[in-house]
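Quick illustration, no need to memorize.
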Amino acid sequence: MAYQTINQTDATHLAEEIIAISAEVKKDGSGETESLVQLITWVTAHFSHLQLLLNSAGSKAKLPTLPLLQIIGRQWNLIFAERRVETGEILLHTSVELGSSNSILGIYQILASIRRLARWTSETYRPWWTLHVLGFDKKEED
């Protein structure tokens, strides 16, 4: 089956970009619950699309645990999501405080966290995606 996009959104400007991390931003005082609902919606679509791509590639790979960013006001949190193989349900792991943009120290903590997530994307997620979705092993190229 041919897909119009390699990720879970049909936004044309993202059609050829691998999306590794979903983020939801809410104003201060806005609902934490609403942001979690949106993140669950995004990650469910993400897992579903990945599973379709894996099935199309004939891969039996386990879906990766995915990081989610929840930003409410100045507070940045990291949540990890996994999809249970047996039931397909989404399990969210405890939120980790990354920092707050109301101080220089907090901004540096957020920056360090974003850099670490970018490294995970390039060193872990992209190679997993390339191997299991595209069926291309970088080691074979070397």
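The longest strand covers residues 90-100.
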